[in-house]
Design brief:
- The chain has four helices and six strands.
- The longest helix has 38 residues.
- The protein is α+β, with helices and mostly antiparallel strands.
- The model has no long low-confidence stretch (mean pLDDT 87).
């Protein structure tokens, strides 16, 4: 009975980890990555639309991104949106496409990025712990309503803790990997 609840909790933890990976992919680490512009939205016929839905994004070199809108009239809009974002990159356009030259990171910028990564990682850990808390509360309710024995409740909580420890470690591993990526050059 409680196994279903543990399986659901693990699924939620996996989603939390997946969300963390997506968030960290949008943080610039000195290398060009098309995901850097994923969150940037541009006005397309009055509707705010992600850049990746109105243009081809490619990485021809390790330190440059090329954005080629399907509609040439969007070039200026996309350039404005990039300037307004917190990427810290100046776009250059030739009327047909936009080039983003990824400058090397300064020491100060690296420290800021690591703080940002740490914050995102901590949010992910909090989400995992909240999933554990919710599951443990559910186990207590099941025990009170006699659907679960006291021993089964303890066993379920122990399994939940092992699962939580596993996902917290995975979160830490993702953090270390991103930190290493930011620090290397």
């Amino acid at each position: 009975m409680y196994k279903d609840l543990i399986a659901q909790s693990e699924e939620s933890m996996k989603k939390s980890l997946s969300f963390l990976k997506e968030e960290l992919a949008t943080i610039r680490a000195g290398k060009a990555n098309p995901k850097l512009v994923d969150k940037i939205q541009v006005s397309y016929y009055g509707t705010m639309t992600p850049i990746n839905q109105v243009a081809n994004i490619s990485v021809p070199e390790p330190r440059s991104i090329i954005i080629q809108p399907w509609d040439a009239s969007l070039v200026k809009e996309i350039a404005k949106a990039i300037l307004a974002s917190d990427l810290g990159i100046n776009p250059s356009n030739d009327g047909k496409l936009i080039r983003l030259a990824i400058p090397p990171l300064t020491e100060e910028r690296r420290k800021d990025l690591i703080k940002q990564v740490k914050k995102e990682t901590e949010n992910s850990k909090i989400a995992v712990r909240n999933i554990r808390r919710d599951a443990n509360e559910e186990f207590k309710k099941l025990e009170k309503s006699s659907e679960l024995t006291k021993d089964d409740q303890k066993k379920a909580e122990e399994e939940m803790q092992k699962l939580t420890d596993k996902y917290i470690k995975l979160t830490d591993d993702i953090y270390k990997e991103k930190e290493k990526e930011i620090l290397e050059v």
